[in-house]
Amino acid sequence: MNIICYTEEDKLSEFKKLKRKKWEAFDFLMDGEWSESPYHEGDVRFYYSSTPNKKNWAIMEIGFPKRIVCVASLESPMDPIEVLARMLLRLDETGGTYIDLLNDGSDDIDYEKIYWLYRELKHQSRKK
Known about the structure:
about 130 residues, 6-stranded antiparallel beta sheet
């Protein structure tokens, strides 16, 4: 799995190429709150999509600005829960927006399982 975020300047051309793929309609994934300090916090809302063959995935952040923030390309289709959790982790690790406090999520995908896996992967990566 190759995951690239808009924050990775050394991979920007590859990111731009992947984000121009033909995506299915974007669906609501989850929203929540982020906080860097008591004076620097906000809300974030994420949407997700894939290409019809499920080998490319994208996460879109709705806010200012509205943009695709993370893309992933796979050799073969994988469990969407794992793909989306790993994409959220990569976005967090590369300085992108993250969710500290989960507020709500999609009825179409198990967003709580995605968020739990993202938090678990984040915890494991900090141990290394």
